[in-house]
């Protein structure tokens, strides 16, 4: 009996098998890339700070995401290609748990909006304090403030919690009573434009140079203004995950039927 005849007699859907294999190969490669870049960035940064600030380290967050994508992509890719029931079941269950977690978080955010917003604001205050301690965190905060035209978590005065921008008399920093340049309204980058916007050296027009709205409110406003787009993206991601789960269990059933023949 020829190979073509065996393929026709197979219970395994080649369309489902190779679709699952193709897309998971892409995600596997993306996971490899993210993990590689994260490890390189963390190595370049060094480990002199220990693990005390990992919760505020964008590189470590990116590394965790990369590892999850790598594991999912590998199990789905190899499981589909080798028709391995264990790997496919792991892929389907793991992805199902992620989808369940995403749905749970979405419901909690919707039901407890004010509490979630307060919790996020409290956590971001910690990032404000570590602004100068981590170059990656600093770049991320600057990007958010410039992108959303905001300053601080709830307002520009949040920067008083940072030791470099603190407006106390005992602070010798030239940045005292100031804010980062990313708070400035200028389209051109001027690293000193945020100096002396508060405190005794501030003028009546100092606040005109910077954004005074907090980033939490700015991001919430952006999400509300683009609610349909955000909801569409979220639903699209959820449906894609659900289809991947269905394909994995469909392939498992096909393989089991093939083995029972």
What attributes does this structure have?
single chain; 261 residues; mainly alpha; 8 helices; 64% helix; 0% strand; elongated; disordered N terminus
Description:
The chain is mainly α and 261 residues long. 64% of the residues lie in helices and 0% in strands. It contains eight helices and no strands. Helix 2 (14-45) runs antiparallel to helix 3 (58-82), helix 3 crosses helix 4 and helix 4 crosses helix 5 (113-129). The radius of gyration is 25 Å and the shape is elongated. Mean pLDDT is 89; it is low at 1-6.
In angstroms, what separates the terminal alpha carbons? 17 Å
Instruction: Characterize the overall form.
Output: elongated
Biggest pleated sheet? none
Q: Work out the helicity level.
A: 55-70%
What does the oligomeric state look like here? single chain
Strand content: under 5%
Run of helices and strands = HHHHHHHH
Low confidence ranges: 1-6
Please identify the structural class as seen in this structure. mainly alpha
Mean pLDDT: 89
Number of strands: 0
Set out the fold topology:
Layout: H1 3-9, H2 14-45, H3 58-82, H4 85-111, H5 113-129, H6 135-148, H7 215-225, H8 227-260
Compact summary:
By secondary structure, this protein is mainly α. The chain has helices at residues 3-9, 14-45, 58-82, 85-111, 113-129, 135-148, 215-225, 227-260.
């Amino acid at each position: 009996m020829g190979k073509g005849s065996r393929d026709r007699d197979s219970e395994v859907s080649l369309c489902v098998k190779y679709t699952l294999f193709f897309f998971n190969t892409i995600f596997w490669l993306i996971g490899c890339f993210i993990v590689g870049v994260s490890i390189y960035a963390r190595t370049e940064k060094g480990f002199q700070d220990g693990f005390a600030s990992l919760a505020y380290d964008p590189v470590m967050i990116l590394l965790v995401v990369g590892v999850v994508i790598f594991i999912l992509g590998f199990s789905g890719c190899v499981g589909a290609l080798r028709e391995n029931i264990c790997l496919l079941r792991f892929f389907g269950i793991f992805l199902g748990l992620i989808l369940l977690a995403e749905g749970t978080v979405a419901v909690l955010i919707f039901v407890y909006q004010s509490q979630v917003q307060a919790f996020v604001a409290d956590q971001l205050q910690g990032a404000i304090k570590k602004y100068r301690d981590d170059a990656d965190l600093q770049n991320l905060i600057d990007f958010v403030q410039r992108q959303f035209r905001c300053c601080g978590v709830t307002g520009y005065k949040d920067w008083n919690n940072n030791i470099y921008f603190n407006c106390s008399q005992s602070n010798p920093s030239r940045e005292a009573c100031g804010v980062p340049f990313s708070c400035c309204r200028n389209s051109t980058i001027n690293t000193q434009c945020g100096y002396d916007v508060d405190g005794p050296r501030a003028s009546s027009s100092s606040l005109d140079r910077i954004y005074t709205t907090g980033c939490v409110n700015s991001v919430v406003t952006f999400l509300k203004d683009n609610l349909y787009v955000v909801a569409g993206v979220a639903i699209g991601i959820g449906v894609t995950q659900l289809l991947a789960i269905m394909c994995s269990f469909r392939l498992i059933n096909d393989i089991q039927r093939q083995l029972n023949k």
